Amino acid sequence: MSSLLFFLLVQMALPPLLGYLVHLHLKEATRSILLDLCGTEARADYWVRTLGLLMVLTPLCAVLLFGGSLSAAPLQDAFRRVASLSVLGVLAAVAVTTRAVWRRVPQGELP
């Protein structure tokens, strides 16, 4: 397998993998908060799945939109750029999720 094909596979697999790992980490905590906010398990499960898609697709979109022409860069620099954009995409997805949930939590009930 050529190094360009290998890099293309890494470029397409790394961002969703990182997003999925973060989704797995946050899934139970997010589900319990959404269950309180939504009222039913079906509604909470829908939003947990939607947030899972956000966590998986945002890093991939960041790499595809802002990665530029990575094939011309040295392999080590290209990997660093993919990893950086993947982490940036995960952080953006977590920030959007956190802000959306925080805005719906009743502030008067906080300790």
Based on the model shown, name its key terms:
111 residues, mainly alpha, 83% helix
What report would you give on this structure?
The protein has helices at residues 3-38, 41-66, 75-104. The protein is an all-alpha fold and 111 residues long. It starts with a helix and ends in a 7-residue tail after the last helix.
| Rg calc | 17 Å
Number of helices: 3
- Into which percent range does the helicity of residues fall? over 70%
What separation lies between the terminal Cα atoms?
57 Å
- Give average pLDDT, whole number: 86
Compressed to H and E, one letter per element, the order equals HHH
Helices and strands in order:
Layout: H1 3-38, H2 41-66, H3 75-104
Summarize the structure.
Helices cover 83% and strands 0% of the residues. The chain has 111 residues and is mainly α.
